[in-house]
């Protein structure tokens, strides 16, 4: 019976019913879809929350939340007009001082902010260069500067300059035009691979410095995880003591970074926390051998086991350890395993421009295999400018620097590096012994962990009694500057000062210890008097003030403004205040 023969009213009823049921079906489907989306959301949200709580712990999660509430409160407070005006005023004072410290002023300063209309004579350029090199600065030659200048001696400097001269125009982007540079570059990589016990398939690249090496290692790991596992929300697990270059990598390549604590007394990365952060989005684990702040080598063996168990890349940052850690044993010191002999280690960064004594602008990045290295390659096969392929960030690169590096490695040789290791690490141990054993250092300073290489960090010891003074470690740093022109480094979390011993410092360690004793002794006396007389603590010296500000503002915006001002200053040809 066709519907056309039904009475009109019934037909309408049926049609209405049909459309209602269709609508109901549609509604049901939409409901289902909505529930599905909601469930998916709930799943992703709870997975994220679960991972967060698992990684940071319940306490860490609560503390993190309370910190973010505090930050918001501070931001609101600072935007109140009267607070903002005051903060802006004080900020200007600091920024102006920063500018005064960095940019030379005075009537006799001649500034060049446009091309000279006629080129200068060679003689005039030479004169000007000489006076630029002679500008007032810390005396690194006399061993007064921590780290910074990894000088290999006058003779080596001359040889490097000659190497530059021979290859001034060279660019490794064109290996056919500069076959000598290609050969040297490949040989540098081969030498460093052998130093770090790479397997037969091991491969590497040279880069412009430790930061580029680290950037490339993180980038390659991210690409690998994407291509092999489809990871689109990459995460990496980084010890808080690992170099800031990892933060830069996270920023540049959009990798979420989990910072893992490195607690006392060992100050090595906390392995249970590393484990707790591993999930399907993890693309790489990080360890340092040693780290910059305290010179501590993480437990690379344990990291290696974890990396193997979860089939994850493990990068070991030997940027600072460079040509010291591979020679520790040969130089007579004990060493923990850190290189490719640990099967889980997939990449290592080693700065030839630190303790390799190569000219600045040189570093290497090593991989366990050629396949791992290929993830960092950049290929533009369809480019209108022709097929283009380059191994790392830069396109054109300075061949002169590669020649300088090669010349350094060849002229120093294994025996030279073993000797340098012996002297540098030996001097660091002397310094450590003095801080641990000799008064007044023993009572008022404390060495951070058990450093085994070239860095010694110390914090202010907790006072033994109620009336005993506790020093501000940053004031110790500033007092050392005032007393002997010592340029030591401030580190934070915990507040510490560190010395990275270089060859120029080796000869100055005794004076360093003497000055440290005088400075600490005087500060202790002064504090005792202050306590006895019941006076309040003063404002503190400049480093103490700067780090004091950083601690007292949870959102750190003010300190970030200082940092930006500092960077702006780098490019000011004339003062702006
Ligand atoms: C110096 C250093 C780096 C980065 O080196 P740059 O050459 O300054 O980019 C990385 N890691 C550690 C531990 C370092 O000390």
TrEMBL record:
<comment type="similarity">
    <text>Belongs to the group II decarboxylase family. Sphingosine-1-phosphate lyase subfamily.</text>
</comment>
<comment type="pathway">
    <text>Lipid metabolism; sphingolipid metabolism.</text>
</comment>
<keyword id="KW-0663">Pyridoxal phosphate</keyword>
<keyword id="KW-0443">Lipid metabolism</keyword>
<dbReference type="GO" id="GO:0030170">
    <property type="term" value="F:pyridoxal phosphate binding"/>
</dbReference>
<dbReference type="InterPro" id="IPR050477">
    <property type="entry name" value="GrpII_AminoAcid_Decarb"/>
</dbReference>
<dbReference type="GO" id="GO:0008117">
    <property type="term" value="F:sphinganine-1-phosphate aldolase activity"/>
</dbReference>
<dbReference type="GO" id="GO:0005789">
    <property type="term" value="C:endoplasmic reticulum membrane"/>
</dbReference>
<dbReference type="InterPro" id="IPR015421">
    <property type="entry name" value="PyrdxlP-dep_Trfase_major"/>
</dbReference>
<dbReference type="GO" id="GO:0030149">
    <property type="term" value="P:sphingolipid catabolic process"/>
</dbReference>
<feature type="modified residue" description="N6-(pyridoxal phosphate)lysine">
    <location>
        <position position="354"/>
    </location>
</feature>
<keyword id="KW-0472">Membrane</keyword>
<dbReference type="Pfam" id="PF00282">
    <property type="entry name" value="Pyridoxal_deC"/>
</dbReference>
<keyword id="KW-0746">Sphingolipid metabolism</keyword>
<dbReference type="GO" id="GO:0016740">
    <property type="term" value="F:transferase activity"/>
</dbReference>
<dbReference type="GO" id="GO:0019752">
    <property type="term" value="P:carboxylic acid metabolic process"/>
</dbReference>
<dbReference type="InterPro" id="IPR015422">
    <property type="entry name" value="PyrdxlP-dep_Trfase_small"/>
</dbReference>
<comment type="pathway">
    <text>Sphingolipid metabolism.</text>
</comment>
<keyword id="KW-0456">Lyase</keyword>
<keyword id="KW-0808">Transferase</keyword>
<keyword id="KW-0256">Endoplasmic reticulum</keyword>
<dbReference type="InterPro" id="IPR002129">
    <property type="entry name" value="PyrdxlP-dep_de-COase"/>
</dbReference>
<dbReference type="InterPro" id="IPR015424">
    <property type="entry name" value="PyrdxlP-dep_Trfase"/>
</dbReference>
<keyword id="KW-1133">Transmembrane helix</keyword>
<protein>
    <recommendedName>
        <fullName>sphinganine-1-phosphate aldolase</fullName>
        <ecNumber>4.1.2.27</ecNumber>
    </recommendedName>
</protein>
<keyword id="KW-0812">Transmembrane</keyword>
């Amino acid at each position: 019976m066709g519907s056309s023969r039904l009475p009109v009213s019934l037909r309408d009823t049926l049609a209405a019913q049909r459309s209602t049921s269709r609508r109901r079906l549609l509604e049901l489907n939409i409901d289902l879809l909505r529930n599905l989306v909601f469930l998916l959301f709930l799943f992703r949200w709870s997975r994220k929350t679960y991972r967060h709580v698992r990684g940071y712990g319940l306490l860490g999660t609560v503390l993190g939340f309370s910190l973010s509430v505090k930050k918001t409160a501070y931001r609101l407070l600072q935007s109140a007009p009267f607070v903002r005006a005051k903060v802006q005023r004080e900020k200007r004072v600091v920024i102006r001082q920063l500018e005064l410290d960095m940019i030379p002023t005075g009537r006799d300063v001649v500034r060049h902010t446009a091309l000279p209309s006629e080129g200068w004579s060679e003689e005039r350029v030479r004169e000007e260069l000489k006076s630029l090199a002679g500008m007032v600065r810390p005396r690194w030659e006399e061993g007064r500067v921590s780290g910074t200048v990894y000088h290999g001696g006058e003779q080596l400097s001359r040889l490097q300059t000659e190497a530059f001269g021979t290859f001034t125009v060279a660019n490794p982007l064109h290996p056919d035009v500069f076959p000598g540079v290609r050969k040297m570059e490949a040989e540098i990589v081969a030498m460093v691979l052998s130093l770090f016990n790479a397997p037969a398939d091991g491969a590497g690249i040279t880069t412009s410095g430790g930061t580029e090496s680290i950037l490339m290692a993180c980038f390659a790991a991210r690409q690998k995880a994407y291509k092999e596992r489809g990871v689109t929300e990459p995460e990496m697990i980084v010890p808080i003591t690992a170099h800031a270059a990892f933060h830069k990598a996270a920023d540049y390549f959009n990798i979420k970074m989990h910072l893992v604590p490195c607690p006392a007394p060992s100050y090595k990365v906390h392995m249970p926390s590393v484990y707790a952060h591993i999930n399907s989005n993890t693309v790489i684990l990080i360890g340092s051998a040693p780290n910059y702040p305290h010179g501590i080598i993480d437990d690379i063996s344990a990291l290696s086991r974890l990396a193997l168990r979860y089939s994850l890349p493990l990068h070991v940052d030997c940027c600072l350890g460079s040509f010291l850690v591979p020679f520790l044993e040969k130089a007579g010191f004990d060493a923990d395993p850190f290189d490719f002999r640990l099967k889980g280690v997939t990449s290592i960064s080693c700065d030839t421009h630190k303790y390799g004594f190569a000219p600045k602008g040189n570093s290497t990045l090593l991989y366990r295999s050629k396949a791992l290295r290929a993830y960092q390659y950049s290929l533009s096969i369809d480019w209108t400018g022709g097929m283009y392929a380059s191994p790392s960030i830069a396109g054109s690169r300075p061949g002169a620097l590669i020649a300088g590096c090669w010349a350094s490695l060849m002229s120093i040789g294994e025996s030279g590096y073993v000797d340098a290791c012996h002297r540098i690490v030996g001097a660091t141990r002397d310094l450590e012994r003095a801080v641990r054993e000799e008064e007044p250092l023993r009572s008022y300073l404390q060495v951070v962990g058990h450093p085994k290489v070239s860095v010694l960090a110390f914090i202010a010891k907790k006072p033994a009694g109620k009336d005993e003074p506790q020093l501000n470690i940053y004031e110790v740093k500033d007092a050392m500057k005032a007393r002997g022109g010592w340029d030591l480094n401030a580190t934070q979390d915990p507040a510490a000062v560190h010395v990275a011993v270089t060859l120029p410092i080796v000869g100055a360690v005794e004076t360093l210890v003497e000055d440290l004793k005088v400075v600490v002794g005087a500060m202790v006396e002064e504090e005792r008097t202050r306590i006895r007389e019941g006076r309040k603590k003063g404002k503190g010296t400049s480093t103490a003030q700067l780090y004091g500000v950083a601690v007292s503002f949870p959102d750190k915006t003010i300190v970030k403004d200082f940092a930006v001002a500092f960077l702006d200053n780098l490019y000011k040809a004339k003062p702006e205040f």
